[in-house]
Amino acid sequence: MVPKPQNAAVQSVTHRPLPPLPKLRVRRPNKPETNPCLGIMSSVLGCWASSGKTAAAQGCAQLEQKLRQCMDAPRDNNPKKNNINYHLSRMYPNIVGPHKRK
């Protein structure tokens, strides 16, 4: 550790305030969901890679069955839309606080 000289003044860094936001908003809140079977599929592929072709039918059968069940499961075609932007627009006046009208 280097000792500081006694006469050295501490320089304060001044930060400019951020410009005001016209509104709070999350970009693209409705991202598509990842495939729920992706983890099981990677496990099956890892099992096949590690066991080779001869033992793949015996050791990986249970994982393959789980993958089949996951792929055959029904999917929701109408995903629920995210309502974060609605709540942010409601809360924005409370976050910004009172301001003067011109």
From TrEMBL:
GO cellular component, one term: mitochondrial small ribosomal subunit
Keyword Glycoprotein assigned: no
Keyword line: Mitochondrion, Ribonucleoprotein, Ribosomal protein
Location of this chain's protein in the cell: Mitochondrion
UniProt GO BP: mitochondrial translation
InterPro entries found in the cross-reference section: Ribosomal_mS37_fun
GO molecular function per UniProt: structural constituent of ribosome
Family recorded in the similarity comment: Belongs to the mitochondrion-specific ribosomal protein mS37 family.
Assembly information from the UniProt record: Component of the mitochondrial small ribosomal subunit.
Function field: Component of the mitochondrial ribosome (mitoribosome), a dedicated translation machinery responsible for the synthesis of mitochondrial genome-encoded proteins, including at least some of the essential transmembrane subunits of the mitochondrial respiratory chain. The mitoribosomes are attached to the mitochondrial inner membrane and translation products are cotranslationally integrated into the membrane.
Alphabetical list of PANTHER family matching this protein: 37S RIBOSOMAL PROTEIN MRP10, MITOCHONDRIAL, SMALL RIBOSOMAL SUBUNIT PROTEIN MS37
Full protein name: Small ribosomal subunit protein mS37
